[in-house]
Amino acid sequence: MRRNSRIKNQKEKSVTDKIIIYCGIGVAILTLVLVGLLIYGKSLSDNVKDSTMSLEKMSSINQTTENTLNKNTASASTDIGKNVEESKEELNTTNNSNTMQNSTTSNTVTNTAKSNNTTTENTQTVQETKKELSFQKPVDEEIMREYAKDNLVYSETLQEWTTHLGIDIKADKTTVVKAAEAGTVKSIKNDPRYGLTIVIEHDNEFQTVYSNLLTSEFVVEGEKVEKGQSIGTVGNTAAFEIADEPHLHFEILKNSIQEDPTIYIK
After folding, report:
1. Can you say whether residue 251 is alpha, beta or left, with left for phi > 0 and alpha for psi between -120 and 50 degrees?
2. pTM surpassing 0.70?
3. Residue 163 near residue 149, CB atoms below 8 Å
4. Can you list the positions of beta strands (E) in 202-244?
5. Could you say which of 55, 91, 238, 247 is the most buried, measured as most Cβ atoms within 10 Å of its Cβ?
């Protein structure tokens, strides 16, 4: 009987131990589950926070991007506006420049035309002046010795053959000598070879020379004289022609070179 009781107690104790073990296992599993839930919950909370922060960051980034785009758009708009205004201004400047260039070209053409007309008129005037310029004999008498540049003539005074770069017009002493053409008295001088001499300058680079004079009482140096105006009187003062009869030694120079006076006397 005791034996059965002891066996029974052992069985009950075994059952109790099992229950305790099972309860311990259950508590341990429950604890693990709770711990797992806590860990999961914290992780989820952290993820939610991270997600919230990420959304905030994304929103901030989007806002920054939008602002940047707005600024770039505004800047681009401003640049475009400036470029349009600058283009208009450049176009106006170009148009003004073209207008000024056209005006300048027109003025240049006009001035050139005027200049050409003026030049033509001046040329015509010079040509008319050349046509109008003619010489008369300063003494209306016969020529006793011709112009001789290439052919030699015999000089009674020098007793030799020599050139003669003018003409000798026979005339009595005190015969009035007249200007062959209008001009200005350049000089009145005593030439050692040709005696008292008057030189008159004319247009077109011409000069006339009146030598072997007795007097030059009618004119002074620098005086303007008209064609046919009295300038002096015939004499016999030329040392190189002292042996000849009284006469006027007359020369015509063009560009400072003696020419044959008979070519120009009309």
Report:
1. beta
2. no
3. yes
4. 206-215, 224-225, 230-234
5. 247
